[in-house]
Specification:
heterodimer; A: about 240 residues; alpha/beta; five-stranded parallel sheet; four-stranded antiparallel sheet; 12 strands; about 45% helix; B: about 550 residues; alpha+beta; five-stranded mixed sheet; rod-shaped
Chain lengths: ~240, ~550
């Protein structure tokens, strides 16, 4: 999923880009309104994060231009303007969400995930479609998994990794394969990055992160999802 | 706002101008009346002067006739010779002291004119008019008018040159016969006989007219000056006898003023006609003065208003610049704050990932950075809310929210600082169900109350929050065990910039928190009040909420 991020403050832009990238999005950056429009036309993003007060063309202006080309693309305003009227104007111009600065990283993540879910649904994905890994039921369009009725929030990257492992159940997946799938080809592979991410993910989805049952480490090779137990169960139920 | 001031300023201009115009019109009308009166006075004086000319004329005539009367003898022939010698004289009447005619004596041989005269004057003689006049008994004079003669305007037809009533020995008498007035100069002699000199009518009229002014009057230096007005001498029949002056009054026009001619022609009148243009000219003069006066005042007002307007709009501009400056600065502060907050978050995540065992202390320090940046952003949002409050732009956006959840979340925000200060929190929450409140506003109220506890009542080591609901009223009570607020301050502590201690070295604070919190509570139809408390401060937030509660 590609995100266009337009923000004139370089540090804020880089930080947000990092947050978005860590969530599994491919980020296209723009430092001003004009650049944002150029990037929008050349890179065709899936959704857009816009600062309002930017040099040259303002976020409002860019939002209108984007809406004229693409009426459905989700747009999130990220702005220090926090007056009610600013938000109203933003929503009137067709924004899907409004994040007020200063924000916490967790708030941004939650809102980005919400927009991504809406994106998936808007593209025809069934929010109730799911697949099962061990005792975990994963709803990819919803960026969510459930275990015993408890909801676990997942990032887009988490879903990508889990989808890949599930599709190749029983097979050992090389780190580079996972990396290319979940981070993208042009991302410089770093085995540490992947390992860290897997360890974080395990903490959230594994019943016991110390002895993982969903993402198992294959030393020297990569990772593997063992569907045996589950498949045996399904086979059994099919036989009986 | 601007429109309102503009209308006000317009009123400041329009109202006085309207009043001024009204006043001007009134003044103009009064002026016109006064002007007319002045004109009348001027022309009345002129008419009086003309009347003086008439009087003097008859006076000098009477002096001339005095000698003539003295020459009258009893001899009819000498009288006839006197009449022949004096062209002015038409006939002479001599009466004895009881009114019997001594001359012309009808017993004697009379000529034709004498006989005609006796016929004409028979009534005058019979009624002894001249005897009455000369002895001062003139009460019945007025009935001596011939039928067909116009009524004289005055009863008194007698003129006396001598001021002694009843004792005059010479004078004029007007005698109506035919269709006109005839003048008689009479003289009473010492022997009681009365001599009446009947003046040739055409003659005395011509002499009178000759004595009156002309249209073109000659000045002392020889230049001739035209009389602009028109003067008329009206006889007893109402006919114009003589008139002069350049102005030709249209038929039937009214005279500006008129006056009766003094004796002996008391039934005659003098009239003055003034062209309208003369009055209008004078009126135009006042109108111009008035217009220029109003114009000057209007100009002055316009200048005044312009000055005030510019001053006012400059002040408005400066005020809005100040407000927008505060807003601008607050927004500018948000950019670095955003980065501090975000990078601290990111760093905390990194540390947790990298050094789960040893990163603990660093993560704690980062939490301080994060909570301080949160505090800074709360301060900024207080300043912005205060700006909105000052602009009357505080608006609520109520939506269903669980008050208890809100309280827990706010307390969680403060948790690191509260535990660092050793403040125990005691939550007594009883309103889990969502209510229609503005969670941002309620959060701001709570944040302000809790940060007060954190700032001023940390010594009490206690923060207690209770929530309860009574029908449509949500009540949140925030209490502490700190030093409390002195009784004298309890009323003013909600005012902006009021702090219990203003000493700089004391705990920080901007002094707007409680003011904002109370306004936000009042916007909810409730209030923020201080409650009696034995220890510490105890604040009660009451929010009135519409009864229909959406199930979120």
């Amino acid at each position: 999923m590609k995100v266009l991020l337009a923000e004139d403050d370089e540090l804020t832009r880089q930080g947000l880009a990092e947050v978005l990238a860590s969530e599994g999005y491919q980020v296209v950056q723009a430092a001003n309104g004009a650049a944002a429009m150029e990037q929008f036309e050349t890179s065709v993003p899936d959704f857009v994060c816009l600062d309002i007060m930017m040099p040259g063309r303002s976020g409002y202006d860019v939002c209108r231009s984007i809406r004229a080309i693409h009426p459905d693309i989700p747009i999130i305003f990220i702005s220090a303007k926090s007056e009610e009227i600013d938000k109203v104007v933003g929503f009137e111009l067709g924004a899907d969400d409004f994040i007020v600065k200063p924000f916490g990283v967790r708030e941004v993540i939650a809102r980005i995930r919400a927009v991504t879910r809406r994106c998936h649904v808007a593209r025809g994905a069934d929010p109730t479609a799911s697949f099962t890994m061990d005792d975990l039921e994963i709803f990819p369009a919803e960026l969510r998994a459930t275990r015993d009725g408890c909801a676990i929030e997942l990032s887009l990257r988490d879903v990508h990794i889990l989808e890949l492992l599930h599709r190749n159940a029983g097979r050992v997946l090389d780190r580079n394969v996972i990396f290319n799938h979940a981070w993208g080809e042009d991302y410089f592979p770093n085995s540490r990055t992947l390992d860290q991410h897997i360890s974080q993910l395990r903490k959230r989805i594994e019943a016991d992160p110390k002895s993982p049952r969903i993402i198992r480490t294959v030393h020297g090779a990569g990772y593997r999802y063992e569907a045996e137990q589950h498949e045996i169960q399904t086979d059994r139920s099919a036989a009986s | 706002m601007q429109n309102k001031s503009f209308i006000l300023l317009m009123l400041i201009v329009v109202l006085p101008l309207g009043g001024l115009t009204w006043l001007g019109v009134r003044v103009a009308r009064d002026d016109e009346a006064a002007l007319k009166q002045r004109f009348e006075e001027v022309f009345a004086t002129q008419l009086h002067d003309i009347d003086g000319v008439v009087s003097r004329h008859f006076e000098s005539t009477s002096i001339e006739l005095r000698n003539t009367a003295r020459q009258v003898e009893s001899n009819p022939d000498s009288i006839r010779a006197l009449i022949r010698r004096t062209p002015k004289l038409r006939q002479v009447l001599v009466l004895d002291n009881v009114g019997s005619v001594l001359h012309p004596d009808s017993n004697l041989d009379l000529n034709l004119t004498e006989r005609e005269f006796l016929h004409e004057a028979q009534e005058l003689i019979r009624d002894r008019d001249l005897i009455h006049v000369s002895t001062g008994q003139s009460d019945s004079v007025q009935k001596k008018q011939q039928a067909g003669a116009a009524l004289p305007t005055r009863n008194e037809e007698r003129g006396s040159l001598s001021a002694t009533p009843g004792g005059a020995d010479e004078g004029w008498h007007a005698w109506y016969w035919g269709r006109g007035v005839h003048l008689i100069y009479w003289q009473r002699r010492s022997d009681g006989t009365v001599v009446g000199l009947f003046i040739e009518r055409g003659r005395w009229m011509a002499d009178l007219i000759a004595a009156l002014p002309e249209t073109m009057s000659r000045q002392h230096d020889g230049a001739s000056v035209a009389t602009t007005a028109r003067f008329r001498l009206i006889d007893s029949m109402g006919q114009s006898m003589y008139e002069w002056g350049e102005f030709e009054p249209p038929d039937g026009s009214m005279s500006l003023t008129e006056t009766a001619v003094s004796s002996p022609l008391t039934s005659w009148r003098l009239q003055a006609f003034v062209p309208d243009s003369l009055l209008a000219g004078a009126r135009r003069g006042t109108a111009f003065q008035l217009a220029s006066g109003i114009g000057a005042v209007a100009g002055a007002l316009a200048v005044l208003v312009t000055v005030f307007w510019r001053e006012y709009s400059r002040e408005v501009r400066q005020a809005s610049q100040r407000v927008s400056f505060v807003n601008q600065v607050s927004h500018e502060l948000k950019t670095p704050l955003t980065n501090i907050r975000m990078y601290a978050d990111l760093l905390a995540d990194d540390l947790e990932n990298l050094e789960p065992s040893t990163g603990g202390k660093s993560v704690d320090r980062l939490r301080v950075i994060i909570s301080e940046s949160q505090r800074l952003s709360r301060l900024i949002s207080n300043v912005l809310t205060f700006g909105r409050q000052q602009r009357d732009a505080l608006i609520l956006r109520p939506r269903p929210a669980s008050p208890d959840e809100l309280v827990r979340r706010v307390v969680e925000q403060f948790r690191p600082n509260l535990s660092r200060l050793g403040i125990q929190t005691e939550l007594n929450l009883d309103v889990e169900q969502p209510m229609m409140i503005d969670p941002d506003a309620v959060e701001q109220i709570l944040v302000n109350l809790i940060s007060n506890v954190e700032k001023y009542a940390a010594d009490g080591k206690l923060l207690k929050i209770e929530t309860c609901r009574d029908d449509s009223t949500l009540r949140v009570i925030v209490s502490d065990a700190g030093p409390g607020i002195p009784l004298s301050m309890q009323r003013t502590v909600f005012e902006p910039f009021v702090r219990v201690s203003s000493r700089l070295e004391d705990a920080a604070g901007t002094g707007i928190g409680l003011s904002i919190a109370r306004d936000l509570a009042r916007l909810h139809g409730g209030d923020l009040t201080m409650m009696d408390s034995k220890t510490g401060a105890r604040f009660s937030v009451e929010l009135r909420v519409s009864n229909e509660v959406c199930e979120a």
